[in-house]
Every structure is written in structure tokens, then in C-alpha cells.
Amino acid sequence: MNTIYVVGIGPGQYEKMTLEAVNALRESDVIVGYTVYVDLVREHFPGKEFLTTPMRKETERCRMAFEEAMKGRTVAMICSGDAGVYGMSGLMYEIGAAYPQVELKPVGGLTAATSGALVLGAPLIHDFAVISLSDLLTPWEKIEKRLLLAAEADFVICLYNPSSRKRKDYLQKACDLILSCKSPDTVCGYVRNIGREGEEGHVLSLQELRDARVDMFTTVWIGNSQTKNIGGKMVTPRGYRVGEEQ
């Protein structure tokens, strides 16, 4: 049976790819992906054929991968982070229904929620929710409801896609919603260019986050009521008292 690996390459640095991901790319004849992500791995896998499509051409990209696999070639479809978290695995399975001769093998990677959390400290030590602020595929009304319910439940909240050229005020709108449930002093953080050149992390209050300048390469963390700023690091307690066992 022909094979396509659906590979999450992590935040971008070769060193932060899983060994399984590296091996899958080495075994592949063709590597397919969004242009920006292919450029991140190209130098590490010489001799491979690379096929790319621009942003918002995901369906075309998936079909391209299946057509290459139907030629008897081993293919890797790559995406940033983890292929199963805002990645390509779901669409590949949907389109793959028309290609029963091709076997899909998902390969995990570090998603922004966890890789960026390491830059800030330890914000995800207790329950958390991940919400994308992009309304390209999800109505803003539904995003608002998810933000409010997660805030009311006192989750740590990780926000993907907090801003773009067309959505410059979306993080501000999200913070205004969350401020109805959380203290303005709630410890928050954001990281830009996770695992890539220019990586920078900032720890600040929810009120300060409201006016922070972020872009599509930024991920945001909003703490729960117990999250602390410890020496400039964002830390959420697990819930245990020091020295006590649960």
C-alpha cells in the first residue's frame, strides 16, 4: 500500500522536531507543504523533491500529495506544530476517503501551546483550553462563547491566531470579554516566533495584554486565578501544596 506521512514539524527549529518526524522525512521521496514550512526543512533534507502551495490552498496541497503517492512514491505532508492540532491530519483523512489505496501515517510534533509555554515558564501545569481567534472557518459569535465559558471555568487559555492584518483588534476584543470574568491583574504572556529566529517572550498582566501588539506569528497565554509571575516567569501551580501528597 502507498504511504503518506502527515508530519508535524514543530515550531520550526530542526532540533525541536521529533525523531519520528525526522525519520519520516528521510524515508520520503517527496515533501509537500505550505511554502513557508517547506523552507524551514529544505536544507536538512537534500535530495528530496519539494512541492509547495501558498496559504489557503490546503485542499489542492492535499490532493497533490495523494496524486504523488498514487505514483508509488512515499510522501510526507508537513505542517507546523502537531499535525493533529490545527494541522493537516483532518483534511488529509477527509480527502483520503477517495484514495483507499493510500495509507496515512500521522507523525506528531510540538504544538505552539506547549513549545511556547516553555519560553514563558510553566503556564500549562493545570487544566487549559486552546482557542483560535481566526474567524475564517469559525463564526466570531462561537469564538466569543468559547472565550467566555473558558474564562468563567477559570481555565488557563491559550490563544492561537490572535491577530492579522484583517483582524488587528481581535486580541483586544478577546481580552475585553475575558476581563468580564477575570481580574485585570491576571498573569498572562505571549511569545512571538516560537522556535525561530527572533523568538521573544513577554509576561504581563491581562490589562496590559489588551493593548499589546501581536501578529500572526504570536501565541498568547492567559492565566487562571492561581497563575503567578515568579521572577519574570509565568507559572500556574498544579494545585498541590508543597510537601503534601494527593
Q: What labels would you give this structure?
A:
elongated; Cobalt-precorrin-4 Transmethylase, domain 1; Methyltransferase, Cobalt-precorrin-4 Transmethylase, Domain 2; alpha/beta; 2 domains
Q: CATH top level of the largest domain?
A: Alpha Beta
Give a count of the beta strands, DSSP E runs of length 2 or more: 13
Structural class, please? alpha/beta
Which sequence of strands runs across the widest sheet?
3-2-4-1-5
CATH topology grouping of the largest domain: Methyltransferase, Cobalt-precorrin-4 Transmethylase, Domain 2
Biggest sheet character: 5 strands, parallel
> DSSP helix count?
8
CATH superfamily (homologous) name of the largest domain: Tetrapyrrole methylase, C-terminal domain
What is the C-alpha radius of gyration, as a whole number of Å?
A: 20 Å
Mean pLDDT: 94
Share of residues in strands: 25-35%
Shape: elongated
Could you list the spans in which at least 5 consecutive residues all have pLDDT below 50?
none
Question: How do the SSEs run, as a string of H and E?
Answer: EHEHEHEHEHEEHEHEEHEEE
CATH architecture of the largest domain: 2-Layer Sandwich
Question: What's the number of domains?
Answer: 2
Helix content: 25-40%
The termini sit apart by: 49 Å
